[in-house]
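Hi all, posting the design record for the shared folder.

TITLE: backbone redesign
STEP: 1 of 1
STRUCTURE INPUT:
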């Protein structure tokens, strides 16, 4: 993504994606896609008829195995997609995970816990924009 704008949660009204900033036992929980060597936050496309909340719950389970968690809206974002003339609209949740089961069969190969984000992120621009927003809200 070339440009990212952050907004208060619920501002945009319609969304393409949901992204989750997930924590488990005081660390960030990231997922690694089977076709990549980089790490990413959980999330994905909102399916027809789904709300952002429903998508967040589905994606968090599918991409991490989380079975017990709390979701709190964090922010909205618009991200310019490279090589395209459109902008992706996302709803971001914070997820505090209490219990994780086995990783379901999905496009994810594994999960990892990190005290700080690793250097090899799939979407570094959006990841760091979301993290800055979280840190700003925590002050």
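Okay, here is what came back for every position:
SEQUENCE:
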């Amino acid at each position: 993504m070339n440009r990212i704008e952050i907004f208060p949660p619920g501002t945009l009204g319609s969304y393409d994606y949901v992204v989750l900033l997930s924590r488990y036992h005081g660390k960030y929980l990231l997922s690694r896609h089977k076709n990549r060597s980089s790490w990413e936050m959980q999330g994905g496309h909102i399916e027809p008829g789904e709300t952002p909340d429903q998508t967040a719950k589905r994606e968090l389970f599918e991409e991490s195995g989380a079975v017990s968690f709390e979701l709190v809206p964090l922010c909205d974002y618009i991200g310019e997609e490279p090589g395209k003339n459109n902008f992706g609209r996302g709803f971001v949740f914070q997820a505090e995970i209490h219990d994780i089961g086995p990783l379901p069969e999905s496009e994810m190969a594994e999960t990892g816990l990190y005290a700080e984000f690793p250097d090899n992120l799939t979407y570094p621009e959006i990841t760091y924009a979301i993290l800055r927003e979280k840190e700003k809200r925590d002050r």
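COMMENT: The chain has a mean pLDDT of 92.
Let me know if anyone wants the other runs.
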